[in-house]
Amino acid sequence: MSARVAVVGGATSGLGAASARVLADSGHDLLLWSRDAGRLAAAAEQLAAPGRTVRTVVADAGDPDAAAVVAEAALDAFGRVDVLVLNAGGPPVARADEVTADGLRAAFQLLAVTPVDLTTRLLPGMRERGFGRVLAVLSSGVREPIDTLAYSNTGRSALVAWLKTLARTVAAEGVTVNGVVPGRIATPRVASLDASAAERQGTDVEDVRRRSEAAIPAGRYGRPEELAALVGFLASDVAGYITGTTTAVDGGALRGLP
Ligand SMILES: NC(=O)c1ccc[n+]([C@@H]2O[C@H](COP(=O)([O-])OP(=O)(O)OC[C@H]3O[C@@H](n4cnc5c(N)ncnc54)[C@H](OP(=O)(O)O)[C@@H]3O)[C@@H](O)[C@H]2O)c1
């Protein structure tokens, strides 16, 4: 069989980059996408290896055309997609009482409409071939809403509801649909959230991180590769009976029963 093909969003940094690395190492060809051509070229170069094809496409998940652009690029390059990692940047910080209608529309495009649209475009081939893996990078806010991330809590919860519904719809066709739930994984996004918390609280970023880590039973932030390991496992053949789940990678931070 030829190599499986994985499409990875937000693949130039943090969780997306680590997921792309794991999928490359487990034999996938890759289409990487995000907003910056230069960063994409650098990411593709890092993943290049003999016998592996890595392509890139520029798209902004906040743009209504993004899903069409990415799906077309993937099918043009490879003619198939087996693994779809739904991931891009997060929405702006906002408390619930700061949410606006325009802001909510933008967050829904970024967090729900584009991922649903992209999945819908790539799903028919997965169903026909009897194999597919849809994996969404979510946030702990879908389990325990985060006060300062109202857009994220709201938009991602809609996506989780759709993914859970989809999982049941395609379960008999070899396509699994799962979410991974990062707690606090050390990436540029988390560094910028910590910086904005420090500014809001009138303290420094090290102080924010120290307090944040103290609230995590494992006593530290996670590493991107610790989340990517789960992505790699869920994308594999042996995970074929796991679907409709969301699994936290959070050092024990979430308090609720799963
Ligand atoms: N790290 C965590 O602990 C954590 C926790 C909860 C949720 N999350 C969520 O997980 C996702 C990945 O986070 P991360 O920590 O890996 O962030 P990151 O290190 O900042 O990486 C974000 C990636 O997404 C790309 N991106 C940003 N905005 C985009 C857009 N509108 N369209 C397409 N690509 C876009 C970025 O590249 P360009 O900027 O060049 O486009 C980059 O490749 C985010 O949605 C984040 O909110 C992360």
Tell me what the structure shows:
It is a single chain. The protein is of the alpha/beta class. It folds into two domains: 5-185 and 223-248, Rossmann fold (3-Layer(aba) Sandwich); 186-221, no CATH class. Helices cover 47% and strands 15% of the residues. The protein has eight helices and seven strands. It has helices at residues 14-25, 37-47, 66-78, 101-129, 150-170, 188-201, 205-214, 224-235; strands at residues 5-9, 29-34, 54-58, 83-86, 132-137, 175-182, 246-249. It has a seven-stranded parallel sheet, with helices on both faces. Helix 3 packs parallel to helix 4 (101-129), helix 4 (101-129) packs parallel to helix 5 and helix 6 (188-201) crosses helix 7. The termini are far apart. The chain binds NADP nicotinamide-adenine-dinucleotide phosphate. Residues 9-16, 34-36, 39, 60-62, 87-90, 110, 137, 139, 182, 184-185, 187-190 line the site of NADP nicotinamide-adenine-dinucleotide phosphate. It comes from Microlunatus capsulatus.
